[in-house]
Amino acid sequence: MKIFPTKNYKLDCIDNTEKSIQVLKLNTLESDRLSTTSTDKEFIGIINANHFEIISSDVGIGAFTVVRGELLKDSINVVVSINKPFKVLITLLFVFGIGGISYNVFKIGFPRALGMLIPLLS
User: Fold this and answer.
1) Helix, strand, coil percent values for the chain (each to nearest 5)
2) Which residues pair with 49 in a beta bridge?
3) Which of 10, 58, 108, 118 sits between 20 and 30 A of 17, alpha carbons compared?
4) How far apart are CA 49 and CA 70, in angstroms?
5) What is the pTM of this model?
6) What is the per-residue pLDDT across 32-72, written as a single tens digit (0 to 9) for each?
């Protein structure tokens, strides 16, 4: 089981890849930083000749996933993954939770520390 799974997709192009890039560029705000801002575009990201890296422009949840893609002759390989800052944040929350449980086990004893798990899990 992977902690941070990725999804791989292979999509077929209806038109040629140049037209797909043009449509993607029309709907994307060009930015080197993958962070959400208010915009009238659908996506924020980087688009090169045959590679792209975009996030959604929805404020609040848009930067959680990153869509990376590579355009081939008649198809597009797309990889959807969690953005790196969110991976770090989730990992820190997990480590602090495990650290807090470990501290309680050594401080108040194992049987009473099990009672602390019920509020944490709910």
Assistant:
1) 40, 30, 35
2) none
3) 58
4) 9
5) 0.74
6) 777 677 778 888 888 888 889 888 877 777 788 889 999 88
